[in-house]
Amino acid sequence: MTTQPQQFWSEADRRWLRTLFDTQYRPFHEHYDAVQQQWVFFRWVERSDSPSAQQAGPAGYFRGEGPSIEGTYNLLNPAPNSNYERLDRSYYVRHKDFFCPGKVFSVLFTEGAGNTASVQNYKRDAITVVMFGEMAHTQIRRFIVVYQKREFCYALPIFTYGKQGTMKPGVVPKEHAIAYSYGYQAALLQGEAELEKDPICIVSTDGGPLSVASRIYFGIHHPIQYNVKVKDLGYVVPNDVPKLTQYWAMENGVITNQGPEAGG
After folding, report:
1. In degrees, to the nearest 5, what angle opens at C-alpha 201 toward C-alphas 196 and 207?
2. For residue 157, what pLDDT is reported?
3. Which of 120, 238, 259, 237 has the alpha carbon at shortest distance from 184?
4. What global pTM score does this model have?
5. Please, are residues 136 and 127 in contact by the beta-carbon 8 Å criterion?
6. Domain housing 161
7. Is there a single domain that holds both residue 42 and residue 84?
């Protein structure tokens, strides 16, 4: 999977930059290194660099629309066996009808470990040997669809925040809701503050329970293109879908009465 960062010219730095997010959604800048002929890490983004950013989630998080997540699968001219993820065949391209509000899925990201070493310190079990003996970092992100468009959907991330829930420093509890599994009770972690938003119940495809620290973050949403290879994790129970979409609309000032046929 790939995100599509926008390039911009920085007069102060006298160079082209682009903004990306790490696995904790902290923003950082890359600049183009003409010698290496590739984009490389430049610096972390301070919150003062973004006047439009509001204190919302973990320190350094941005509110609003996150980077677009796009796949490499060509819907018009597909290559043989390109509709599924080679590292895990449960990740594959779905029909757009799959991405209905309340659908829960995960995306598998694979990046060259060497190219991102300056940004991340990866766990050993997240490193995979791929073709030609190169090392790759694989990362799983979970999302819930809140709005379906013609060519993409908007989806919210589900975090455990390192199993700390909303007790992680910088997290604002009121912008989160508990995500819990059908057949189980929604519960706060010991010492965790009460959340304003009602819990959201999820029916898991494999029947396994969600981590008790799972929290839906309503402060950021991502455009997910329909050519992305995803794994089906389950769905929000029908009675909770209206709450899910209303919470998202309230946090982002979104009017959601426009149908998906209007396009993106």
Report:
1. 150
2. 93
3. 237
4. 0.66
5. yes
6. 67-255
7. no
